[in-house]
Input
Amino acid sequence: MTVELAYTLFFQGKVKEAKQIVKRILEKGKDPKATLLLAWICFQESELQSALEAIEETINSDAKLFEAWVLRAKILHKMGRPAEALESLDKAYELRQVFEEYEDYEILILKARILLEMGNLDLARKEIEKARKLNPYDEEILDIEKELGSGVVK
Output
């Protein structure tokens, strides 16, 4: 049983089977990609505390996994901890720029969403403008712009 098989099963919607494989892998030792998947599974199942514990373990094992920081932000956001979620997104954005060849606008969208919910409209607009430059036709970007009152209509 491999982590790759667990990911394949997860993306096929076979979450229970993927979780079983991940748990078996983790019984044998630490594996950041396995704990990352476990965190995704727990997040999907709304087991937020378990998801946070798994993602913290992932980050402690490999702090350069930008995906882990994005997921950490999603978990913290859902837990009602927006300031910490924003810090995680800043870290993800920083890592993405250092280790990847392209900019991930998902980070910018999530950051804009959190800032909007916090009532920080000016910063939310700045983040959504950056995201719009990368993908001007994304539905979520257009939705946030509409919420911000930018006049953009779907």
User: Anything to note?
Assistant: Residues 97 and 103 are 7 Å apart (CA to CA). The mean pLDDT is 91. DSSP finds nine helices and no strands in the chain. The chain has two domains: 1-83, 102-149.
